[in-house]
Amino acid sequence: MTEYTRPLPQPTPETQHYWDGAKAGELRLQRCGDCSHVYFPARPFCPACSSRDVNWFTASGKGTLFSYVINHRAPKGFEAPYIIAVVQLEEGPRMMSNLVDCPQTPEALEIDMPLEVTFVTATDDIAIPQFRPMGA
Amino acid sequence: MKQKSVAVVGAAETTGLGKIPDMSNIQLHADCALNAMADCGLTAKDIDGVACAGQTPVEIAHYLGITPTWVDGTAVGGCSFMLHVRHAAAAINEGLCKTVLITHGESGRSQIGRARPVPPPSSLIGQFEFPYGPMGPPTMFPMPVMRYMKDMGATHEDFATVAVIQREWAAKNPRATFHDPITVEDVLDSRMIAYPFRLLQCCLVSDGGGALILTSAERAKDFPTKPVYILGTGESVETPMVSQMESFTSSRAFRTASKKAFGEAGITHSDVDHLMIYDAFAHLPVFGLEDLGFCEPGEAAGFIRARHTAPGGKLPMNTNGGGLSYCHTGMYGMFALQESVRQMRGTAPAQVDGAKLSVCHGVGGMFAASGTIVFSNEAP
Ligand SMILES: [Zn+2]
User: What contacts B256, CB < 8 A, 6 or more positions away?
Assistant: First the structure.
């Protein structure tokens, strides 16, 4: 395996469960026990109603392409051009991702196209959630 | 004159602009501060309030020899100076200080003595955006554009037109970095930076700075300069992560800040003679025109295409040439404020004849923060 040279996240006590999920091949989100709001990124309370009664669950991993850019200047660990996308998750929140397993061109993309999560192993402790066109 | 009115009495930019290899970041703050003091006949001994971003108020007060009774180090990116104006007006009204100096200086191009704080990998942006390789503002800021284009029916040509018209204004300004006219084709043929945006749709990278001096409107009468009154102010923030904005076709921070400023000033859109909307990238004037309420959602691109914001148009906007063609140090908001003050003083290179009211709207981070100031040259 080639060395992973992209920026690595450093989990905190509040986000560790999310990153543990990614390592286990699951995209984990949180839902409020009081108002049912589903949110991202992780925190031990609900940003919609301030309740601390929140619960983790495993998301479907399905979403759609909300917006994107194609970066033509590659930082360390990336090869230009590469897509940086914002994914609209089926459960409501949005998250940043790259789009993998597809040409890194505008022609290969359509806003609102269906996507699914996949996980890229970065280190022994960290896997990064990534998205690809559904069925790619 | 209304009680508790505040005015700008001193305003100046750095002596040079664009490439200043013989000055460090802190000296750029000092250079424009000294120019602003000279503009209104003051020295550091007359200043008792200091606000700045990019350097701390401690550094600036010490360097200039000021003993302040009030400081503000609010640093929310390029619109920090709009927030400083707002906070300074409140502080002067409250009697916390009498004469406030607001400084911006940034060695954005030469990178001499400029601090570049990077959020750690444990921060929210470090965990949930940096792993995907966003390389600073040119990648992050245009993130909403493809969504906007789909929802609003805007085109690549629309966002190219923004840059073309800003260049028309810059052509009238001897201090602007670029003067030569450009066409939509030139913009769309320029080097791709981060699709959908190309080089001519991204801001310049410059050295420079600007400073403002504020005092009560009552005291402003005693200064040699024409007072520029602050009629209304607004501020807000939304999110440190562009991916987490509530909407990709509108900025909550823009709407919140501008609504507050218009309300405080008691003005309507038809009162506005001159407009500055911080244009770090070509989509910002489009978002700004809609979020400030000058256009309905989805109509700003057509408004710009119809030349309403161009020279000779009914709403002259970004008349210095903007961040796209005038200069952009990194935190450009101060230059937007300087142009509003020049327009209200009647001293702008591309002066809008008879302008009495100017709205100056700034952005910080990637739609992370916002500040709006309403200026007038008529006493409130
Ligand atoms: Zn809740």
Answer: B234, B236, B370
Task: Give the span between the Cα atoms of B260 and B57, in whole angstroms.
Answer: 27
pLDDT for A135: 86
User: Which tens digits make up the pLDDT trace of B113-160?
Assistant: 998 888 999 999 999 999 999 988 999 999 999 999 999 999 999 999
Q: How many Å lie between the centroid of ligand 1 and the Cα of residue A119?
A: 29
Residue B191 three-state SS:
coil
For ion ligand 1, residues whose CB falls within 5 Å: A 32, 34-35, 37, 46, 48-49, 51
Residue B247 CB contacts under 8 Å (≥ 6 apart), including other chains: none
DSSP symbol at B79: T
Q: Which CATH number fits domain A16-131: 3.40.50.2000, 2.60.120.200, 3.40.50.620, 2.40.50.840?
A: 2.40.50.840
Domain spans of chain A, in order of start: 16-131
Q: For chain A, first and last CA: distance in Å? A: 23
Quick: pLDDT tens for B149-197.
999 999 999 999 999 999 999 999 999 999 999 999 999 999 999 999 9
Indicate the fold that domain B6-113+204-376 takes in CATH. Answer: Peroxisomal Thiolase; Chain A, domain 1 (3.40.47)
Per-residue pLDDT averaged across A94-107, rounded?
98
